[in-house]
Write a structure and sequence with these properties.
mainly alpha; transmembrane helix; 80% helix; transmembrane
């Protein structure tokens, strides 16, 4: 079933509505859907590398709006819809951990979840449930999701379709290394300034 869903997502890259599908997929993934939009973003960018940053923009906006929808689910509907979404992904046991992350790291927790392979939807819903400052949430989400998608789109734009195999194989490692470098940079700035 997962393979069929994967193939279905990629099939949108060859259809006229592929850009709208990318937007919709990015929106849904940020609040409840399991398949990340990265797959379709890569497929669209490989098919038209000169439009890679346009696809990045569409994906980023869709993801940000979906994240806001997830925040609203957590804020207003945690007891009904939000709880069911988190239970569906078997992430209920992570709620205490997420709470601790928000108490200590606030925007960093959102940024890291938005950029890395962590389940971003869990963070969007719980950000609303825990009352994370909405402006902080939107800013951290916009920056992290845009960086994530721009990394993919930029690699395809500059290195061409051959980079797809490299991205597919090492995406989680690349995202983790980038996040660690970014956090290390802020720690250095904090203690040297």
């Amino acid at each position: 079933m997962v393979k069929r869903l994967y193939d279905w997502v990629l099939s949108w890259a060859e259809r006229p509505g592929g850009v709208w599908a990318l937007f919709f997929l990015a929106f849904c993934e940020s609040s409840f859907f399991p398949i990340p939009p990265d797959l379709l973003l890569i497929a669209l960018a490989v098919g038209a590398p000169f439009r890679a940053f346009y696809f990045v923009l569409v994906c980023s906006v869709g993801s940000l709006l979906g994240g806001i929808a997830g925040y609203l689910i957590g804020w207003q509907f945690m007891g009904t819809i939000g709880g069911r979404i988190i239970a569906f992904y078997d992430l209920a046991d992570k709620a205490d951990y997420i709470t601790a992350l928000y108490k200590h790291y606030d925007a960093w927790a959102i940024f890291i979840a938005g950029f890395t392979p962590l389940p971003y939807k869990l963070f969007t819903i719980s950000a609303g449930a825990f009352g994370v400052d909405f402006f902080v949430f939107v800013l951290a989400s916009a920056v992290s999701r845009t960086l994530r998608f721009a990394l993919l789109g930029g690699l395809i734009y500059w290195f061409g379709p051959g980079i797809k195999r490299f991205i597919d194989r090492y995406f989680n490692l690349l995202a983790t290394v980038f996040t660690l470098l970014l956090v290390a940079g802020f720690v250095v700035i904090k203690y040297l300034v």
